[in-house]
Structure to design on (502 residues):
């Protein structure tokens, strides 16, 4: 079993830390929802894991290998795939070209289209011309084709209607069931908690809850307290 | 061909490379020195000059890809003025400020049309420009490296997060365009003013030609280069205005930019 592990990670931007002393663990085949109010440092934390920014302190390990000195390219090649906020397609590339960027073989491309059949009929279309939901599907298919070990998904629902995002969630669940560990940052808290095994709430620059996702989903009081920065 | 190089650089690595012709000039000067002082055959010296042009360009590209990876196009482009000035100064120090005794790789007329003689240099550079433009188009459209380069040009950070080796590909583009520039300079230098400044300033007509294609379209860059060349040739034939021949690219740049801005001017005045 693969593990992505963070120990006392602090990430700073500009004047000071945006999120402090985060310790969490994501196992392969599981989904961890990282939720919390805007400005809690969720995106910064994901960026520090994938190497977009360096954490100011702490340790990040992928199967006991420290990631600190690895470039973002090397982290990606070790199976750590970060899906950024917004529509992270390459707009002028066709759907197939987007997927081919990460699929190592034609079989990999075909497998991605089998998994995401809605995209198959649009394989020759420029990705930038697809709807928002379809573009996010391309991003997921591209990540799937890279055969990741861990997916870091940042606000995939941004700019999408909840009903559109709800169509993407089963796809994320299926990827996880294939043995991929998912760290899911999401603004639609209840939807994210609905698919997650574990939940982490970040508020006011620190972790205020870490535990079972279902427990948090079923306890509005606990969720509100965590969002307001209360003690776990 | 320099316009094609500029277009490739702007499109793929987000740089308007002001040092494009200067790296070629320096490689060409080294080739001349090797022929004149080391007695090397012209072809071998030219190959070495091309490799040096590529290496210089690669160094500049590596610096920009390392320290200015996230910078915007304006900043990355402005930085290339540094190597332009550095290479001109270094040429003055190492090779003097006089024109260099380039040995022509190509010489003589290719054919004449209606009394106008078309030189071999013109024919070869035009054919090479078309071959390079078409070749690049095929590579970008049909190969995995081309797809990666197009991805990199659109969203560099996303490309890296997918494991695409951004720095390696960028430096590769810089190297290839640097080598092409040195080849171009080696071909055209014997038939024109070939001091360091004149050759480095070939960037101006190249930029004018690339501007026609918006620094995006390779075909229009080739057309722009041809059109400018013909225009300069025509102006040179008319005694009364032949002195403005070298200003034609500047006039073209100014005129084209003004034309592009025509709607903004109309909107503002309205």
């Amino acid at each position: 079993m693969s593990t992505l592990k963070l120990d006392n990670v602090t990430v700073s931007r500009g004047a000071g830390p945006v999120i402090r002393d985060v310790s969490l663990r994501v196992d392969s085949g599981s989904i961890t929802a990282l939720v919390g109010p805007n400005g809690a440092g969720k995106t910064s934390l994901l960026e520090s894991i994938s190497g977009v920014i360096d954490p100011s302190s702490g340790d990040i390990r992928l199967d006991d290998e420290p990631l600190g000195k690895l470039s973002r390219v090397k982290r990606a090649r070790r199976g750590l795939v970060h899906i950024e906020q917004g529509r992270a397609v390459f707009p002028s590339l066709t759907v197939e070209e987007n997927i081919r960027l990460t699929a190592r073989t034609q079989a990999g491309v075909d497998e991605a289209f089998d998994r995401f059949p809605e995209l198959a009929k649009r394989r020759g279309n420029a990705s930038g011309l697809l709807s928002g939901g379809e573009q996010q599907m391309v991003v997921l298919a591209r990540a799937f084709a890279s055969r990741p070990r861990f997916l870091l998904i940042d606000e995939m629902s941004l700019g999408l209607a909840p009903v559109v995002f709800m169509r993407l969630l089963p796809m994320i669940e299926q990827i996880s069931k294939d043995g991929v560990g998912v760290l899911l940052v999401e603004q639609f808290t209840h939807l994210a908690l609905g698919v997650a095994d574990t939940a982490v709430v970040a508020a006011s620059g620190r972790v205020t809850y870490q535990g079972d996702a279902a427990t948090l989903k079923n306890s509005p009081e606990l969720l509100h307290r965590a969002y307001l920065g209360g003690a776990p | 061909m320099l316009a094609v190089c500029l277009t490739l650089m702007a499109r793929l690595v987000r740089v308007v490379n002001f040092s494009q012709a200067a790296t070629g000039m320096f490689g060409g000067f080294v080739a001349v020195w090797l022929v004149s002082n080391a007695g090397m055959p012209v072809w071998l010296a030219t190959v070495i000059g091309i490799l040096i042009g590529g290496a210089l360009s690669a160094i500049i590209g590596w610096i920009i890809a390392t320290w200015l990876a996230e910078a915007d196009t304006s900043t990355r482009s402005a930085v290339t003025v540094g190597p332009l000035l550095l290479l001109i100064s270094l040429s003055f120090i190492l090779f003097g400020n006089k024109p260099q005794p380039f040995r022509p790789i190509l010489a003589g007329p290719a054919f004449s049309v209606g009394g106008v003689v078309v030189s071999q240099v013109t024919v070869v550079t035009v054919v090479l420009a078309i071959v390079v433009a078409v070749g690049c188009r095929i590579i970008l459209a049909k190969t995995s490296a081309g797809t990666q380069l197009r991805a990199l040009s659109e969203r560099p950070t996303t490309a890296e997060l997918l494991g695409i080796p951004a720095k390696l590909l960028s430096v590769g583009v810089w190297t290839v365009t640097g080598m092409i520039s040195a080849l171009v300079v080696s071909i055209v230098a014997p038939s024109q003013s070939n001091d360091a400044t004149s050759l480095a300033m070939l960037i101006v007509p190249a930029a004018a030609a690339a501007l026609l294609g918006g620094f995006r379209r390779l075909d229009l860059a080739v057309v722009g280069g041809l059109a400018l060349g013909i225009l300069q040739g025509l102006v040179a034939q008319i005694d009364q205005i032949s002195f403005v021949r070298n200003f034609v690219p500047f006039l073209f740049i100014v005129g084209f930019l003004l034309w592009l801005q025509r709607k903004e001017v109309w909107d503002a005045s309205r």
